[in-house]
Write a structure and sequence with these properties.
Length: 163
């Protein structure tokens, strides 16, 4: 990581970049694990306004990872739930996803969360295991059109908050 990565809470103006990262990440990084029909269903209903509403809402907090002014990843954190963590495919494998996950976990600890749960896409299971998450059971994520994407339910116990 030559350029310094910055991680901050997302703002409404980040929504188009978050959408672009999310769609590219699904289309490229998930392609070997899900069918083209599943990927089409996964990406078909995504709109900028959905991300703007999530950023404005009170049910989850979105964070962005930036290199300079460029959004290269994002995460979404709800109570005890890591709802999303995606990195631009061009940036995958360079430690940015790990850095974003570590920062998101610190935000969770600061919010007094004792554990984080997630439904990992099949392509991300190894990544989460390498970061201390354990597989709890097979699961699925239901998409707006009724498509069920296979996933694995995972959990990580977080360290106690200090200070």
């Amino acid at each position: 990581m030559a350029e310094a990565l910055q991680i901050r809470k997302a703002c409404v103006d980040d929504a188009p970049a978050i959408l672009a990262v999310h769609m590219r990440s699904i289309r490229v990084l998930c392609a070997g694990h899900y069918s083209s029909d599943e990927i089409r269903s996964w990406t078909r209903h995504s709109k900028v306004e959905t991300y703007r509403n999530a950023i404005r809402g009170c049910f989850e907090t979105l964070y962005v990872a930036l290199l300079g002014e460029r959004v290269i990843g994002f995460s979404a954190l709800a109570t005890r739930e890591l709802r999303a963590l995606y990195v631009d495919p061009d940036m995958a494998g360079h430690g940015y996803g790990k850095a974003l996950l570590n920062a998101t976990e610190k935000f969770a600890v600061n919010d007094r969360m004792k554990a984080l749960y997630l439904d990992a896409s099949l392509n991300a299971v190894h990544f989460y295991q390498s970061q201390g998450y354990e597989i709890l059971r097979p699961a699925h994520v239901e998409l707006p059109d009724g498509t069920e994407l296979p996933s694995l339910r995972m959990k990580k116990t977080l360290p106690k908050r200090t200070g």
